[in-house]
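Handout, section 4.2: multi-component inputs.
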Amino acid sequence: MTSEPLINADRLWTRLMALAEIGATPAGGVNRQALSDGEIAAWRRVIGWAGEAGLTPSTDAAGNLFLTLAGRDRTAPPLLLGSHLDSQPTGGKFDGAAGVMAALEAVVSLAGRGETPVRDIVVVAWMNEEGSRFAPGMMGSEAFTGERGMDAIRAARDADGISVGEALDRLHHAFPGMAHRPLGFAAEAYLELHIEQGPLLEAAGCAIGVVTGIQGKKTFQVVVEGAEGHAGTLAQQERRDALAAFAEVASALHAEIGAVDADIKFTIGRVTVVPNAPSVVPSRVSFSIDLRHPENAVLDAAGARIKALCQEKAPPCSVTVTPLVDAPSNVFDPRLRASIAGAARDQQHSAMAILSAAGHDARHLAKVCPAAMIFIPCRDGASHVEHEWAEPDHVAAGTAVLAQVLRELAFAPAIEV
Amino acid sequence: MTSEPLINADRLWTRLMALAEIGATPAGGVNRQALSDGEIAAWRRVIGWAGEAGLTPSTDAAGNLFLTLAGRDRTAPPLLLGSHLDSQPTGGKFDGAAGVMAALEAVVSLAGRGETPVRDIVVVAWMNEEGSRFAPGMMGSEAFTGERGMDAIRAARDADGISVGEALDRLHHAFPGMAHRPLGFAAEAYLELHIEQGPLLEAAGCAIGVVTGIQGKKTFQVVVEGAEGHAGTLAQQERRDALAAFAEVASALHAEIGAVDADIKFTIGRVTVVPNAPSVVPSRVSFSIDLRHPENAVLDAAGARIKALCQEKAPPCSVTVTPLVDAPSNVFDPRLRASIAGAARDQQHSAMAILSAAGHDARHLAKVCPAAMIFIPCRDGASHVEHEWAEPDHVAAGTAVLAQVLRELAFAPAIEV
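Output:
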């Protein structure tokens, strides 16, 4: 370990707070939608800071922002690290932005030391991680890794009818001189720092989470169809009451799927009843299912059981179960995780292994290169809220760990895959 | 029984169809809201027909319309018969209007025969039975019977912010010369014809339903309170999931309350989930309960059990059960029911005893004088829909039965109460 500081913690915090001014909400949060004027302004600010340290900006067809520190071998696959600059409509200062600024600070500090890495180092801000303006999210990393095609991505529209394609063209138009990279390139490794978005680090008093992986997620849309009737006249035994059937289905799902094991997460979060009038027997109930588990075998079995249970409990109503998201769990690279744990130990930060319950761009990067994530605590586990908060010490600790891992990789031979 | 026809069936049908032109919807239904221009126009048309037969219009503070045929003893309590002229927004031609036009036809036919009844006969159109513009309904009959005070009634507002008071003043302003009666007066008896709004008469092939009473009804608003959480991070055993608790409560209520006996009607018709987002554990579910039964003892016991079951099944969430409507069943006057059954028999119309599952103004009149109702079939049991339909023969049969009962009462000594 080097004896001089790996990062400038004051500069990092000052820049992170300055970035939070762009799209600031009156309640102290941030509203910085993907491809908006706010995100364009955030790009300009970040590009300015990167430029002072000699990093070169570029973009790609998916609107990802890359800031490159040149290495000795420009043809070797670069190290990639970053997160995203977009936020939820009533989001906070840290979700995404902390990861981009941590990556930039680590690279700027390294560059400031005058050492030239063996390969390029690229800070990245992925386009539309949140998915709040254009659904679904993680568009930039999915396009980069070939998970989704650009035609489908460009066709998505926001609530005002503006397409991603139009918004992307507008973004690129705002940076006319910027170099365009081909979409997707081989990377040596990917690192991402993020706030935990959960309460575990705070509860354990740990500054650093060594993320083991991202738990798998399946979502479904279920529709129970019955028949409408007058609440005062239709005999109980003649009814095909969609709400009564839904209650049976939901009760059975919570009891069985919710009790698979201690790691399962089962949620019915959205319910729509038709016609939803007090004196009318409901004809239709549609509802969402969100199912998560770190082990894919358990997730798959639970997912299959959901459909069977719905069909078992819905009669005399009919039921249709439509799968939407099907994202298996992933396990982050063991060597990168060991490097993160080692750096935390060196720097005397308390650390623990932690599973990411939420999705991140790193999920997609892990399919194409060794990838890992560093979590830092956030107050009360709250995120996607305006009072989202991470302590300056934790932001600095996570960034210093990231900087140490980066430094080890930047001067090491290629990782054997 | 008289050998000449008791009513003019063609005139009745023609007038009923002419009335349906006021507020007619493109799909063949009627939208004639309480105290609207449509209801004012309907008043003018009905008052005109009544005037041709010598009936005198009057109103009261509650905006009820009275059309009086003078009897020999003007001080004796009059016979009262009628229904309502307002409709649901996508209502039909018969719900309410058939009862007013049947009453008018019965009285006009009687007057046309040149006979003077022993007491006044008053056709009534009650204000705001439906409760769709101003909630809740049955305002006119509740004010008439002293069930609700005029201050509370006048304060209710429609979706545009117009109060019942303002709308009532506007109605009265539209009929400047009309006499005002004091609110509420002693009546000798009350009779109301109505479409069944259910499938029983049609299924049994009966033209006449001798209504035994109106089943009791209780409604409740239930709120289940839990705690919001992230669907991906909050452990299942840590959750206070309001939707999971609702499913337990609703499932238990349907299973137990819905199976009390063959006459119970139990409906959860409206459900509101907060925040109702797929990836958020719901913090709050509020829902409506509509409970009906012809026997008050059963209704009361089931109502009490609802609260206990909610409290038993909701934990770890909390629950509050707020009673709203509490309308006991009523039994219509046995002598009037016998008169209706006898008239149907005389006229060779098939008839059956039937319980009203829906509420009617007669519910309130039955508290202050002998009251009864005649039901006629409606196609497929459908009402509150634009394709609501009653056959001309059934409208005529019900009106002729009403006319015979009216004639018997009009020349008989007072009913002993």
